[in-house]
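Slack export, channel: ligand-projects

TW: morning all. Re-posting the request from yesterday since it got buried. We need the structure predicted with the small molecule present, not the apo form. The ligand is zinc ion; the SMILES is in the block with the sequence. No rush, but it would help planning for next week.
GE: picking it up
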Amino acid sequence: MRTLITGGTILTPHTTLAGHTLIAEAGTITALTAGPVAPQPGDTVVDASGQWVVPGFIDVHVHGGVGHDTMDATPEAIADMGRFFAAHGVTGYLPTTMTASAGAIAAAIDNVMACDQPAGGARHLGLHLEGPYLNLDYRGAQHPDHFRPPQPDEYARWFATGHVRLVTAAPELDGAEPFVRAGLARGVEFAIGHSGASYQQVVEAANWGMRQTTHAFNGMLGLHHREPGTLGGVLADERIYCQIIVDGVHVHPAMVKLLVRAKGPGRTILITDAMRAAGLSDGEYDLGGQAVSVRDGVARIANGSLAGSTLTLDAALRNVIAFAGLSLAEALPMATTVPAEALNLAGRKGTLAPGADADVALLNPDLTVSATIVAGRVVYRSERSTA
Ligand SMILES: [Zn+2]
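GE: finished. pasting the full token output, ligand included:
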């Protein structure tokens, strides 16, 4: 019972293999073989002729989509979000919480823990907690009532679940260092975000082990040539991966290009930061307990602050190629190997190689998604690909 993906051009993504067949068995890639492979009875053959065969995308920062949100804390939310993300090439993602009460965050964690991996969609790879230990001055669309400094009783419970993989926090808060060190000891990664950290505070946070920044440019102290601030710190420090929302709204295309040049694709992570309106039409929604209006696909709370996005990761990839003037091969790591590496999943996720999980996206020449395969199973095929 193998899955054979044949006829396409494989981007591993660090090498390009034309005319190869990808063989998967029991959810794992077993070989990338030159030429066609004769199918055995029971094999599933996926014809990828004329398409790119790439690692499934990984979204480390996404709140919701198709009417659901991680904070809904329902099994339906996780199942439907997984299906929707898979239709955009995503095979793994971190359901992302908002700044909220201790009870609401705990409920969201408990829900993800209780949910099996959806049979027909992207897998959840643990949670990303965006807050609540953030700087109120850089709150963006996070609910102002729930900001607090790190609470040892609360975060000890998060870490004990074993399901929290990434936490966004402001390192300038009292108690941030013991919080970060406690999480790192449990294998949790940390992102600097919604922060007014000075350059020096960013360097110190990186010394503790904070290795990412959440949506670079958005929700942080900006750049000045004599006061590099949070943004200058995360741009200059090679240890830090920068998440960025490449929808052309959150960050100007020229600044996207500047960030990719400063960090290199090897330290840049494409995220969507999508909220529940993603995949739906304009209208009235909510995010983290605040009303959100979506107009022309742009989500804002009443004061005008951007409130997540309606971006999908395949669109982010197409956008970064256009904005930064990159080839597909140059841009692809930012949605695959780099997020995998930043989550300590290098070698298992985000790459097409023997021993890696058989999580694959097939892309049309225009880089829309033709099919998505999770653990060797086809979970999505576009209308176009079945025609
Ligand atoms: Zn977010």
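GE: first-pass observations. Residues 61, 63, 96, 130, 273, 308 surround zinc ion (CB under 6 Å). The radius of gyration is 20 Å.
TW: perfect, thank you
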